[in-house]
UniProtKB/TrEMBL annotation:
<dbReference type="Pfam" id="PF07732">
    <property type="entry name" value="Cu-oxidase_3"/>
</dbReference>
<dbReference type="InterPro" id="IPR001117">
    <property type="entry name" value="Cu-oxidase_2nd"/>
</dbReference>
<feature type="compositionally biased region" description="Acidic residues">
    <location>
        <begin position="563"/>
        <end position="580"/>
    </location>
</feature>
<keyword id="KW-0732">Signal</keyword>
<feature type="compositionally biased region" description="Low complexity">
    <location>
        <begin position="532"/>
        <end position="545"/>
    </location>
</feature>
<feature type="region of interest" description="Disordered">
    <location>
        <begin position="488"/>
        <end position="580"/>
    </location>
</feature>
<dbReference type="GO" id="GO:0016491">
    <property type="term" value="F:oxidoreductase activity"/>
</dbReference>
<dbReference type="InterPro" id="IPR011706">
    <property type="entry name" value="Cu-oxidase_C"/>
</dbReference>
<comment type="similarity">
    <text>Belongs to the multicopper oxidase family.</text>
</comment>
<keyword id="KW-0186">Copper</keyword>
<feature type="signal peptide">
    <location>
        <begin position="1"/>
        <end position="19"/>
    </location>
</feature>
<feature type="domain" description="Plastocyanin-like">
    <location>
        <begin position="332"/>
        <end position="459"/>
    </location>
</feature>
<keyword id="KW-0560">Oxidoreductase</keyword>
<dbReference type="InterPro" id="IPR011707">
    <property type="entry name" value="Cu-oxidase-like_N"/>
</dbReference>
<dbReference type="InterPro" id="IPR008972">
    <property type="entry name" value="Cupredoxin"/>
</dbReference>
<dbReference type="GO" id="GO:0005507">
    <property type="term" value="F:copper ion binding"/>
</dbReference>
<keyword id="KW-0479">Metal-binding</keyword>
Amino acid sequence: MRWKVLLPLLAPVLLVCQATDVVLDWNIGYIDFSFGRLFSRKAIGVNGKWPLPAVEVTLGDTLIIHAHNSLDEPTSLHSHGLFQNGTNYYDGAAMVTECSIPPNGTFTYRIPMVQAGTYWIHSHYKAQTSDGLRTALIVRDPNDYYKYDEDVILPMSDWFREPGKHYHQAVIKFVKNKTYRLRLLNIGASFEFHFSIDDHELRIIEVDGVPVKEKPTKGVMLAAGQRVSVLVRSKETADNNYLFHADMFTDLFTMPKYNPLNFTGVLEYAPKASLKREVNGGWKITSDLDLEPLDEEALMDPTVQVTLDAYSGVFDDQSFRHSFNNVTFILPEVPTLLTALSTGDNANKREVYGRQSNTYVLNMGDVVEITLNNHDYYTHPFHLHGHVFQIVEIGALRSGLHRTKLARDAPVKRDTFILRGGHYAVLRFRANNPGAWLFHCHIEYHAIRGLELTFVTAPGLLQNNTHLPEGLKENCIAQGIKASGNAIGRDGMDLEGQPGGPNPLPDKMLSYILQMGDEDGPPPATLDASHSEAAGSTTSTSEGKSPTRTDSTTLDKARETTADDIDSEADSDDDDDNDH
Ligand SMILES: [Cu+2]
């Protein structure tokens, strides 16, 4: 399925740059997958297999994926975390950067690997990530700053890690006196994982592809979409085995009764060594704000301000929707990139991309400061395509923008970050990448229900420099989708008849906007009790631990939790009333 072809390079160049094409032929189709004795279901696999093998390449390679769609609906492939600078059309966001690949259609993604680190590939069409179309993408740098003996890829997801093999049966083999790099990835659709190893220290060295200064920690929290690399030094003797824990936080959904909350595996030094358990290890989390990027890039000065209010509730069509600034995202009828390429000067007007696309047009070089207010009581992990952003501050909405927790001079950069309910965050990114880039919650069902918007950077540059790859427009035509024009496929600014909603109920829309900045903050968000995301109290335990947590169920409750409670090293054993 995978082979490498050496490019014809001159011998002297070959010594320093072994650039290769890594070619994958992916036939994307349904398979029947059985979860041991628990249940079986239809899943989306590749070449008749699930889970998909990790894609492992070297910095400087070109990753070429020939994707053939054998599903009965469209599909697309997004390489999460890759900037795609100059290749926006390979970003894989259906109806934003391509029309998607129709059933029985093909598309070739040809992506230069210019960023080392831990990434992943997943469908960006409807809920296909939940259905299994996802895998790790590892880009290794032979000159990696950090040195280690072994490299272990540990994807975690709402499903199980290997066919018929649950996490609590998983084994990681360790040899004494070695340094391991564990690449932790949350490639799930919804839930957060907390990862730890009994009686072993983790040292964080990478978050979302960004190398960071080594930071010791007991455990790592990962929301959907996030990746963290840790170094772990093995013991000096092989006398004992230990447990590792991937505790899944299921705050958002009521789970099927068979779904375990705590996955425990064995860190095995020797098959017959006795298991040494850590009593009361607890959950400990290192804040993003305590991390510093290795490149020490300074805090950027913003030139553009964007304030985004995330709100969820029952909208005026009686559906449950998510929104930014009262606008629930609905895909345009023409992919945003194709609108940017085909509408001349109008491409600089946000309206041309359609009301429900909620598009912000940026100039090349703008430094955008996003102030993001989460008025919901639950967490959203927000992801920006094509960039990393500096995390400048995080605080509770209740206290207003009082800079409760400030970033350091060189703040950490990520492409996905956790924003708790009732909290705000300030993010900054440099618009240095011409293209159409989604910004959205990475909980798949929140995104599908509208918690997305689009940044379009430098449409003029795009128009001058973009040569669409073969097959992209053909895949539009094959589906009856217009490949040019405004959001509804017309010339000029004629958008008559475009979707104009659904909208928040009038009282909700007004009340929360009017009270912004009020010392008491916004009113509690209400939630339809019949909705599947109704949260409840969850108590979970695992061997060797005795954590208890009670989830907040109202916005008021969530607001009582400060950013420091959540983001600094806090042991939930000592604090039963937070929403870790
Ligand atoms: Cu969300």
